[in-house]
Amino acid sequence: MEKKVREYIRAWQMLKAGDKVIAGVSGGADSICLLFILLKLKEEIGFGLSAVHVHHGLRGETADRDEAYVREVCAREKVGLFVYHEDVSGYAKERGLTLEEAGREIRRARFLEAMESQGASRIALAHHRNDNAETVLWNLCRGTGLRGMGGISPKNDVWIRPLLCLERPEIESYLEKRGISYCTDETNLKDDYTRNRIRNHVLPYLTEQVNERTTAHIAECATKLAEIGEYIEAETVRYAGQCRKSGKDGAVIILEEPYRAVPKALKAGVILSLICEAADQRKDIGETHVRAVQQLMERRPGKRSSLPYGLWAVRGYEGISLRKGGKPEKTDENPAVRMRIFEKNMESVTFSQKNYTKWFDYDIISNTVKIRHRKPGDYIVIDKEGRTQKLKRYFINAKIPREERDSIWLAADGSEIMWIAGYRQSQAYQVTDRTKRILEIRIYGGERDGGDSKGVDSRGGSQKED
User: Fold this and answer.
1) Is 445 helix (H, G, I), strand (E, B) or coil?
2) Same domain as 172, residue 50
3) How many angstroms separate the CA atoms of 14 and 109, rounded?
4) Per the structure, how many domains does the chain have?
5) Whole domain around residue 13: which residue ranges?
6) Residue 49: enclosing H or E segment and its boundaries?
7) Among 71, 114, 335, 354, which is most exposed with the fewest C-beta within 10 angstroms?
């Protein structure tokens, strides 16, 4: 079995000569097996070895017994030992965590502390194949993607798991043959935790009633999925970079056009990564929030959705803005606009169907076209008979929420509204068979300072090219 672990370490390049290793040793069978195998391999590979034991303050005398045993083994084997006493229960209550989550966070922090104090380069943990199978099943039941289906990684930065190639019976057999004793954590035999129920009931049933190699097959599949997951993650990062733009006040903007070009299999991952970046958190951000942003991408500007950690997703003209803070009043300060004038040739003209690109009869425009928000007195022509409607009344009739009305961009010819961007175009400026020149206005969105955008002067040419 030592040979099997040695080959696994070599295959994953976990250890090399000159490394200093911190091993997590609880006193249970897995961690004691890890300690003794590393002791066998340390001279052969040429690495240094120390151990860390964390007393969680949860199991009274049995936890004291575990600590005493670990001290005895490390003293006998001449292994440097760091022992930490922690109040896991208090830590969990203070941070709103489960005991499992709190224990994991504390152990991780103490292992890193010991590594830094010793100038170590690796932290070895005793996870094995059964742990991996439990993790995959648990993740599948809770809902997961490729990362969760990939299970536990053999090597992740400074963290290594040399026993991930072994199943629990192999570990127990190894210790029994060598006469090495270990402690039993009685809480592992109880069904208080979901993981314990999977360990004590689900995996044994699958092994006995479905396939005796269930654990091995799940672990092997997890390894393959983890490799695929690494590739997918790299591609997701690449596409997320193409879709991302920095906005004001630390906002992250998901750009619509490049997002539309992202392969379907990566779209959710791209949005998830950008939400996590904007929130500066990963925990509790999941499929529900990704779906909310995806749905928002199909809605008109001004719509918004709340996300965890005080984050708001706001639909703008160029995509979705993810920003922290109070509920935003406007989607953008000033959009990027492109205007052009060209001669009409009906044989070659194809009218745009895009919500944010519109054509107008340039020759009937009286004033300089402005791209702005609403002002008192604004109105729009609503039918071919030339009947008008106050902009305020249009917003009411169209059931546009009051809080969104100030954020909607308008193309205005004085007080006459040519276009309510994303909603309606005035009947008065429609291109007809009498039109000679066409004004095209395209709103891209964006973040610019200043007041009204420059426009197109009806007496001259275009004054604005973005």
Assistant:
1) strand
2) yes
3) 21
4) 3
5) 2-227
6) strand 48-55
7) 354
- pTM value is 0.61
Tell me if residue 380 falls in helix, strand or coil: strand
In this structure, are 311 and 342 located in the same domain? no
Residues 16 and 149 in one domain: yes
Structure tokens given for 13: 């390049």
As a whole number of angstroms, the distance between CA 258 and CA 272 comes to 16
In angstroms, the CA 244 to CA 74 distance is: 51
Confirm whether 463 is domain-assigned. Answer: no
For residues 24 and 126, is the Cβ–Cβ distance under 8 A? yes
pLDDT per position in the chain (466 positions), as tens?
A: 889 999 999 999 999 999 999 999 999 999 999 999 999 999 999 999 999 999 999 888 999 999 999 999 999 999 999 999 999 999 999 998 888 889 999 999 999 999 999 999 999 999 999 999 999 999 998 877 788 899 999 999 999 999 999 999 999 999 999 999 999 877 766 777 788 899 899 999 999 999 999 999 999 999 999 889 889 999 999 999 999 999 877 889 999 999 999 999 999 999 999 999 999 888 788 888 999 999 999 887 778 888 888 899 998 878 999 988 755 555 445 567 888 888 887 554 555 555 578 899 999 998 889 999 999 999 999 998 899 999 999 998 888 877 678 888 899 999 999 999 888 899 999 998 889 999 999 886 533 333 344 455 443 443 333 3
Measure the CA–CA gap between 31 and 274, rounded to whole angstroms. Answer: 38
Q: Scan for tokens 């997961």, then name that residue.
A: 144
